[in-house]
Amino acid sequence: MIDTTTKPTEATKGKQKKRKGKNKIKNKNLVGGSFLVKETKAKNVFIPEEWNEEQKMIVATVHDFLMQEIIPHLEELDSQKDPTQMPAILERAGQLGLTSLSIEEAYGGMDLDFNTGLLFGEAVAPGFSFATVIGAQTSIGSLPIVYYGTAEQKAKYLPKIATSEWKTAYCLTEPDAGSDANSGKTKAVLNEAGTHYLLNGQKMWITNGGFADVFIVFAKIDNDKKLSAFIVEKSFGGIELGVEEKKMGIKGSSTVQVFFSDCPVPKENLLGKRGKGFKIALNILNTGRIKLAAGSVGGGKMATLKSVQYANERKQFGKSIGEFGAIKYKLAEMAIRTFAAESGTYRIGYNIDHKYDALHAKGMTSSMAKLEALREFAVECSIMKVYASEMINFVADEAIQIHGGMGYAQETGVERGYRDARITRIYEGTNEINRMLSVGELMKRAFQEKKVDLVQPLKNLPKYLAKQALPFKSKDNYAEETRIVENLKRIFLLISGRAGQKLKLKLVDEQEIIINFADILAEVFVAESTLLRIKKLSQMDDKDGQLMLATKHKMLQVLLFDAIDKVRKSGRDAIFSFASGAEQKVLLGLLNRLTPSYNINPKKLRREIADVLLAKNTYCFSSYPMPDVVM
Ligand SMILES: Cc1cc2nc3c(=O)[nH]c(=O)nc-3n(C[C@H](O)[C@H](O)[C@H](O)COP(=O)(O)OP(=O)(O)OC[C@H]3O[C@@H](n4cnc5c(N)ncnc54)[C@H](O)[C@@H]3O)c2cc1C
Fold it and tell me: How far apart are CA 294 and CA 70, in angstroms?
């Protein structure tokens, strides 16, 4: 049971300084986007099977907290009848240290490494609306001060935010400024005395807005073209809140409009530099994106667990429904996609930590190094936001289907999961915007910043294809899978390279084609991350039983089997969209040559994966113990 006194538990004590990296893995490949063109060795990636005991204890502490504070009260929380209930729970989480994970020790936080923060996001996900509430408090609502605050601002705000005595909200979106966030009209004008900015405007969809004490507000000073950021206390006055939005899901979270009318903000509460607010907003959203991916993994595990248990319990036609191939297919797919999303999320989370260590060691300040490390992997953060959110929407939907009519009823809880999952494709940048970003950022890194060379591998393509024609010999157990991933990478380079040469700047207006590229990019990154995970596991198989390793390998095989088709479909879509005649023929020919044939029996493998899940009666591929009681 969790300690509900005000003392932090062993797992959350501030003394555990993990920033220096408990999971020590050397990785020189710390250039975001370079996974496409550089070989990554399995020994250089972090895999979730490497979580240490302290990290697993954090998960257990969070699960205990959810079992005690959230799960028995889901109906009341969703009804929002008592608006003080959710903030009070947040405060109790704060007393246990659960809202101070990313705050520096000097300000009462634990300053845990980034990947442990992601794991926390995964652990809290089965808390439904509470996951959104604590997510806003510990991420978008507080990180702007952690990363950009002055020493005075940090000293004033962070200790109280760390304990959740002060609750926070992030105010970027406006009625006419959603995806186009920089077009916001909220205005800040310095008063005559030069002491305060007077803030006027309207923000919309503000999570935690109904009870926040501190708002991070983005507004334009005078007639600036770019946003600035401000720390605004509710106690400053001039703030009015709209009514709670009636939402499809995450009903227990507060979402309101916030109106500012001559709200006086002391000029020292400008956060960062004037006109740099949009940059702050985007960098904070990068963090939010990968955290959302981790949360989706947590949801995926729990929905799969529930579905496995129901498939074992429910009998029709004289047997449990888990014995039917149609249900086995679903269970296997749910597990495969959850496992794959997990592989990509923590691979990148660890790289962010590693990059931070490298930059900090070179003398960069801690805040700056955190930001730069995140910015480095912006491509991968967008990829994982899209992949994981679409995974959880698929998994949550299949969970309902497996539960049949009971899935449609409120009492089994999968219906809540389905509704709550839907928002993940919308906030932290919609999936359309994130698809544009993953490709756009990659192109920026390649052609403006010259950090990733996308051209040389294309020049080497004839040599690569000639080598492919030779008989295939290798001692590597995973040689075939490695070659598949290599080929898929080259499909991306080939088609995006040709489209770029042909359409040049006009490519930005061809969003359908960019979406094709983003989809290929995501398949490649996730497939490679899963492959590297299995390779690494096979080198340390004492940590993972033989049956588990063999089953995880089967999950990789089915994933790759599907990835080949998805990449081929997106590739053909793109080629038919921008090429015609001889050029089209040549590109299609090359696409065919690069499309690997992979002879597995997907039905047999999916059945075997499902049988392991059903025999274990849980989501058995997690590297921490899943809760006994279904949430
Ligand atoms: C429950 C909830 C909580 C939220 N919490 C917060 C919060 O705490 N703080 C905050 O600031 N905001 C918050 N938001 C706002 C959220 O970030 C926005 O809803 C989101 O960014 C999308 O903006 P929009 O709703 O205006 O959609 P729009 O921008 O109007 O988009 C509508 C559609 O058009 C597409 N679209 C828009 N522009 C393009 C383009 N250039 N290319 C291709 N497609 C495009 C979108 O992908 C989408 O499909 C929250 C929203 C919700 C629903």
Answer: 20
